[in-house]
Design a protein that fits this description.
Layout: H1 2-12, H2 33-40, E1 43-45, E2 50-52, E3 64-69, E4 72-77, H3 78-87, E5 96-99, E6 114-117, H4 119-129, H5 140-155, H6 163-174
The structure holds zinc ion (ZN).
Length: about 180
């Protein structure tokens, strides 16, 4: 009798396929359709960059999306969220997002915009394009100011195709 019960339990267990059991206490809340819809409602597409106009985290100046399910909450930077849904799977923690367009609010995945890279590649690319000038010059505060200005411009009806050309012009009007 005991042997039969043991056999039944073993028979219904997946044979080591690595799929974790559903766990409401899991640290990671998967992205679902509702969160993904909410994400796209906060994106203004232009012919070049796709601009995130939702929450911006301070002081780093990157877009941020937060969602809750039951009693759990998860937040991701908007560009990492975009990369995750484009990949269709969670991306590795050590992977970093590269903004080849140098626009921190851009969430367009693909050539010339967003891609997954390593930190080393990201720094190498930044050095090559002159974006990396030491820790002081490209400060998070400046990036945050710029992000807030871009968002205000777009939410105020600004032309999304002109953000890239006019970021330095719209910045002083806000600060
Ligand atoms: Zn872009």
């Amino acid at each position: 009798m005991d042997q039969l019960q043991l056999f039944d339990v073993l028979a219904v267990e997946p044979a080591g396929d690595g799929a974790p059991p559903l766990d409401e206490c899991a640290a990671v809340l998967p992205i679902d359709d509702a969160v993904e819809r909410r994400f796209w409602q906060r994106v203004v597409k232009s012919s070049t960059c796709w601009w995130w106009v939702g929450a911006i985290s301070t002081p780093d100046g990157y877009g941020r999306i937060t969602w809750r399910r039951k009693n759990h909450q998860r937040a991701l930077s908007a560009h990492r969220f975009a990369l995750t849904i484009a990949a269709g799977a969670e991306i590795a923690d050590e992977a970093v997002a590269e903004h080849l367009c140098n626009q921190p609010l851009c969430v367009r995945v693909g050539a010339g915009h967003l891609q997954v890279g390593t930190q080393a590649e990201n720094v190498a690319y930044a050095v090559a394009t002159g974006r990396h000038r030491g820790p002081r010059l490209v400060s998070a505060t400046n990036r945050c100011s710029q992000s807030l200005a871009v968002r205000a411009y777009l939410l105020g009806g600004g032309d999304p195709d002109k953000v890239g050309q006019h970021t330095s012009r719209i910045e002083p009007t806000l600060f």
